[in-house]
Specification:
9-stranded mixed beta sheet, Immunoglobulin-like, Ig-like_dom, 6-stranded antiparallel beta sheet, 1220 residues, extended
Length: 1220
């Protein structure tokens, strides 16, 4: 059985459940939770079932035996079963299962619990733990109040159609949010309606749109412009594309001019842009092509960020002075929220907050600033914020610099929000290591890596928050008690390790431990010159501070410049360049991968220029793998995904990839496994048929795990249907039957082939008709009831349990007719002429037998020294003459010719010939005018005219063409070769009409006339018989010399209507039209035709009309008699039996008539289904449907529907057969 709640599994214990009883099911399942360590977790579930089920709770990894830890209860007021887990710890993260059991079945579902580790330590200097929670809560409440104060404009109420269109194009993950926003409670009904709307919308879109895909919903960029796009190809490029907002049409620009709403088209992609987005621009945007909706997307008011016309700027202020921050908004905000290092600020004497009446300009004045006021200040305007630093210039900073302690003055707050004091001296330093524990992280800073030259002094120092911390130094893992040239020093909170003169033995990894405080760094001792420092790069981790220090000496003044990628570096929020009389230092407060590369220091004075090269390597976790995730294979059993390596590996090689998946509708991600760095694909074998999943991949290196690359929704394939077989073959044919055969397809799907569906169609049509209603088990079929003389094509499709597969390609066309006989021998085969390399043959057609027309001739030859015959031409000859070329002089050979037809080749006629030998006798020249030539002469007026006349004669005669007894015009071209002469007119004109004569030169010529006919004469119309019209006309002038001239009569019923043929092949000058409708106007046209084409038409000018007489009639009313409208119930469309795959839905329907409307009752095996929740019955205006949800073996049997009213009752029955 299938539950109505997603994620609930139901197991039925018995085959037949008594009436009134049911298996357990969940009305409300427990939800997955994510909670902080130390809190309580509460799972709630509501179950149903008759008899009432028993509910049990369990977890996957361990038992739940501790009653003080796990409290299970039942709330009778809400019917909720409750599991409460007290005092959460990290070990409580697990998958918890709720199971409801009664005598007839079991229902179970699972919910996840994720524990977040709580923070330790205090938030700032000497700040108690409880204030951290208080500050966090205060900040959250302040932001909530701010969001309430910045009220977005109320959206216009949308009509239901706009909401459904928005759901139709929304992501499935947004369905629940949209339904809650617009008050749609029936989630399953919503899904059914969307499925119906999708079919109707696609059918309407197919009329106007060729393709539609790749939707991108609306997004707002940093410049405050909203953009959404789609890829669309219109069938008609002139179709109108409209943009609507909340149902109202918008005007948009398409050129370079600035408009509020713009459309830009790149190829097939349409980009719609809303410039300068304001809160009133929120709403539902829709794209339409003509009146057909194409795409809908919503711009939420909460997604519109607050824009700053003038953002906050960094402020430098001397100690005890007043610092002022000011910014200007584009949209008003009257009650903003100011924050200092994430702490909300209230108006006071210390912090003076002001807002102009228009709500656009905001000021914050910090009075009497001190070192504790330094840091990041932020103005939060609800949907946007602006931040800037306050830098307090105090005395301790200058003193620290004079002693060579290089602090980060540009960004006085490190990544932990504290003032850093640790530094390196006389070398290149990069911050390394970490400081943690109650005496470390909140109030101090760690050691920093130092690079010095051999013989120079070096120093490591760190600061802790408590004075009573006793520190211990370690080098390379060994405790240091004493060491040559090393001095340990402690002054208050600062612990130092000082090396007066660095030697090789001082290089290594140093660690400081004091109580729970640990921090470590390295000292590098270089022996090479500074200009070779690029060979030993400085390595730092992302997010840490780096200091590169270069000492120098020389005659002043000395100018020092730091460069990277040929660009000089200056001070900004992250980078600071410092210079003294003896050294220059580059400080990067929080380095990242973009800081990698080669650096150059240029020192310049009046004596010259010195350049020093350095190299910095920043290592970090890799970027996400390059996407998108491709689905290489998807079947019912497995899914294979593929991705690309990340574009940036973070400076460390990728070690492996982590693959996870999430089932659609669930919140938890499941780890599938890992792949090595060389493998960028993964195959998962445990998938459910037709189930949808999301996948994500992370790259891992020595520094950590990258962000995830996520895929779209991937659906596992269901049972595979078979592939397409090869085209069927024609075995035999008769006048009304054709026998075909075929082979099984190569791909049979996931189940055995049950049979084949055979279809047929007439050649030249597009509609395929079924030959049989049930699958054919054999691979051979005799198709009957065909029309004689019609040409048919056939195709087949294999059928298995998954359904009907792809059809095959059509077979070769075949005629439905009895087999024909082959043609007879050709007549009078002879050699008409020959030369040194060719022989010309002529012959006559064979006698026609049973209407078996000749389709061509096959010419073969055999040399005297060979026994095999070879074809002289690739294609059969169409005329009764041919020329065999490529022969040797005086070569003897045998030639034979046979006729070809639909019944096959005829008997061959053979002769012996010799190349270069004269013909046995002189052949008189004559024109070979036959049916083949006349059919070749059919052309259309206005096209090029080609007239080809074959002839024979030996010796070859001289051919002369004349028009109307005169030489041809200069436009005409004549070519004579190989026993034929051709006349060519490239563009036929009406002036080319006339008599064309072909004359063969030795006095034995024959005249042949080729005319384009002249138009007929005047047309006369007469009504000799009532309601008929007789059309007569004067004959065409071409009748004098044209024997095959005929006429065509056409008519139309208006001056601009279409002409319709009334009569064709008329050989006289008279035609009678009998279907004349009185009262209509008729126009007539007559055209003269021959085998070359048609003449100009002759038409009537005035319309022909037969007056319509008005008929008189009388109406005799009858007395009204009441009609008894009562009718017995009757089934207009009865029930049909169904064969359904188990687990799917079955829809049974029928149509019922009767008056009064009959009452409908459904039965299964004589059991009333009206109150059975497993069946869904509807009756819409006489169309009755029964839906069986999740068909099982118990649903097999006879179903009956009863229709009854006060007149009578009727029944209809059908069977349901579930299949596996």
């Amino acid at each position: 059985m299938k539950s109505s709640i997603p994620g609930v599994a139901i197991t039925q214990f018995v085959n037949d459940i008594p009436q009134g009883c049911s298996t357990p099911d969940f009305e409300k399942k427990p939800l997955s939770l994510t909670l902080q360590e130390g809190k309580n977790a509460i799972f709630r579930a509501v179950v149903k079932g008759v008899p009432a089920p028993e509910v049990k709770w369990s977890r996957t990894q361990k038992g739940m035996d501790d009653p003080a830890k796990y409290e299970m209860s039942f709330n009778s007021a809400t019917n909720e079963f409750i599991l409460q887990i007290k005092s959460l710890v990290l070990d409580d993260s697990d998958l918890y299962r709720c199971c409801a059991v009664n005598a007839y079945g079991e229902a179970s579902c699972s919910a996840g619990l994720r524990i977040i580790q709580g923070r330790t330590g205090s938030f700032g200097l000497h700040r108690p733990l409880w204030s951290q929670a208080v500050l966090k809560k205060t900040l959250q409440n302040s932001k909530k109040m701010l969001r309430k104060r910045v009220a977005a404009p109320k959206p216009k109420p949308l009509d239901k159609e706009a909401v459904w269109q928005l759901l139709l194009h929304a992501d499935r993950r947004d369905y629940e949010k949209i339904c809650m926003k617009y008050g749609i409670a029936d989630f399953r009904g919503m899904l059914r309606k969307l499925q119906e709307m999708r079919k109707d919308t696609e059918s309407e879109q197919d009329k106007l749109i060729q393709s539609l895909k790749n939707f991108e919903h609306i997004k707002v960029d940093k410049e405050g412009n909203a953009t959404f796009s789609l890829e669309m190809e219109l069938k008609n490029s002139n179709s109108n594309v409209y943009l609507l907002k909340d149902g109202e049409r918008l005007r948009y620009g398409t050129g370079d001019e600035y408009r509020k709403h713009c459309l830009r088209r790149v190829g097939r992609r349409y980009y719609f842009t809303v410039n300068d987005v304001q809160p009133e621009d929120a709403g539902v945007y829709q794209v339409r092509v003509e009146d057909v909706p194409v795409f809908s997307t919503e711009l939420d008011a909460q997604a519109i960020p607050a824009r700053f016309r003038q953002p906050l700027s960094d402020v430098r202020c001397a100690e005890a002075g007043d610092a002022e921050f000011q910014c200007v908004l584009c949209t008003p905000c009257h009650q903003p929220l100011w924050l200092h290092k994430s702490h909300p600020l209230q108006a006071s004497d210390k912090h003076q907050i002001s807002v102009t009446p228009d709500g656009l300009t905001h000021k914050l004045t910090v009075r009497n600033v001190g070192p504790s006021d330094s840091g990041l200040y932020t103005l939060d305007a609800g949907q946007g914020s602006s931040s800037a630093w306050l830098l307090v210039e105090c005395e301790w900073l200058a003193v620290g610099c004079s002693h060579g302690v290089l602090g980060q003055t540009e960004t006085p707050y490190g990544k932990d929000g504290l003032t850093p004091h640790a530094s390196g001296q006389l070398g290149q330093t990069g911050r390394s290591g970490s400081l943690y524990g109650p005496g470390g992280l909140p109030g101090g800073d760690g050691l920093a890596t130092v690079r010095v030259l051999k013989g120079e002094p070096a120093e490591l120092s760190c600061t802790v928050s408590k004075d009573n911390v006793t520190g211990t130094w370690f080098k390379d893992g060994l405790k240091l008690t004493s060491m040559d040239g090393v001095v340990f020093e402690k002054k208050g909170l600062v612990h130092k390790l000082i090396i007066n003169k660095a030697e090789d033995i001082h290089a290594g990894k140093y660690r400081f431990e004091g109580g729970d405080v640990k921090t470590e760094a390295s000292i590098f001792v270089d022996k090479v010159l500074l200009k070779n420092l690029t060979s030993v790069p400085t390595v730092a981790k992302a997010g840490e501070g780096v200091k590169l220090r270069i000492p120098f000496e020389g005659r002043g003044p000395i100018r020092a410049a730091w460069m990277k990628d040929r660009m000089e570096l200056g001070d900004d929020t992250r980078i600071r360049v410092d210079k003294t009389d003896t050294c220059t230092t580059l400080s990067i407060s929080s380095c990242d991968r973009r800081d990698c590369g080669d650096y150059k220091v240029r020192l310049k004075n009046d004596s010259g220029v010195l350049e020093i090269n350095l190299k910095l390597v920043v290592i970090d976790k890799p970027q996400p793998p390059a996407g998108p995730i491709k689905i290489v294979d998807s079947s019912a059993n497995n899914i294979t995904i593929q991705w690309k390596p990340p574009k940036d590996d973070g400076g460390k090689p990728v070690q492996r990839y982590l693959v996870e998946r999430q089932q659609v509708g669930r919140n938890d991600w499941e780890i599938l496994g890992e792949t090595p760095r060389s493998c960028t694909s993964f195959t998962m074998n445990k998938v459910e048929e037709e189930m949808s999943y999301y996948f994500r991949v992370r790259a891992m290196n020595a520094e950590g795990v990258s962000d995830a690359l996520e895929s779209g929704e991937v659906k596992a394939a269901g049972k595979a249907s078979p592939g397409a077989p090869d085209p069927p073959e024609i075995i035999s044919a008769s006048r009304d039957t054709i026998t075909i055969s075929w082979k099984a397809p190569c791909k049979t799907g996931t189940s055995q082939i049950m049979g084949y569906m055979v279809q047929k169609r007439k050649k030249g049509t597009v509609t395929w008709l079924p030959v049989t209603n049930v699958p054919v088990k054999d691979k051979k079929l005799k198709v009957t009831s065909l029309k004689k003389g019609v040409q048919y094509e056939f195709r087949v499709a294999a059928v298995n349990a998954a359904g009907t597969g792809q059809p095959s390609d059509p077979s070769e066309p075949a005629f439905a007719r009895d087999p024909t006989k082959s043609p007879g021998q050709v007549q009078d085969l002879k050699v008409s002429s020959s030369d040194s390399s060719s022989v010309t043959l002529t012959w006559n057609k064979p006698e026609v037998q049973d209407g078996n027309d000749v389709k061509g001739y096959e010419v073969e030859m055999r040399r005297c020294n060979s026994l095999s015959w070879t074809k002289c031409f690739t294609l059969p000859a169409e005329s009764t003459s041919c020329r065999v070329q490529g022969l040797q002089a005086r070569e003897k050979l045998f030639l034979r010719v046979r006729a070809l037809s639909d019944g096959g080749p005829g008997e061959a006629s053979e002769l012996q010939a010799c190349a270069g030998a004269a013909a046995a006798a002189v052949v008189s020249p004559r024109l070979l005018i036959d049916d083949t030539v006349k059919s070749f002469l059919v052309i259309k007026a206005g096209n090029p005219i080609r007239v080809k006349i074959p002839f024979e004669g030996s010796p070859e005669p001289v051919v002369t063409w004349l028009k109307d007894g005169l030489p041809l015009p200069s436009r005409a071209a004549v070519s004579t070769e190989d026993g034929s002469s051709q006349l060519l007119l490239r563009a036929a004109e009406y002036s080319d009409s006339g008599t064309y004569t072909v004359e063969l030169g030795d006095g034995l010529g024959k005249r042949e006339t080729f005319n384009i006919p002249q138009p007929p004469g005047a047309i006369r119309l007469e009504e000799n018989v009532p309601n008929t019209v007789t059309v007569t006309w004067d004959p065409s002038a071409s009748e004098q010399w044209e024997n095959n001239l005929y006429y065509t009569v056409l008519k139309r019923e208006s001056q601009k209507g279409l002409w319709h043929v009334l009569g064709d092949l008329i050989y006289n000058n008279k035609f009678t039209f009998t279907r004349v409708v009185p009262g209509r106007d008729y126009y007539f046209r007559v055209v003269a035709k021959n085998e070359l084409g048609a003449s100009h038409p002759s038409e009537t000018v005035q319309p022909w009309r037969i007056l319509k007489k008005k008929a008189e009639f009388r109406v005799k009313t009858q007395k009204y008699r009441g009609v008894n409208q009562n009718q017995h119930p009757r089934f207009l469309v009865p029930l049909k039996s169904h064969v359904v795959v188990m687990g799917s839905e079955c829809h049974m329907s029928c149509a019922v008539g009767g008056h009064p409307p009959p009452k409908i009752t459904w039965y299964k095996d004589s059991r009333d289904l009206s109150r059975d929740p497993n069946y869904f019955c509807t009756n819409d205006f006489g169309v009755c449907s029964l839906v069986v949800l999740g068909v099982t073996k118990q649903d097999e049997g006879e179903y009956m529907v009863e229709a009854s009213n006060e007149v009578g009752r009727a029944f209809s029955k059908a069977f349901l057969d579930p299949s596996i």
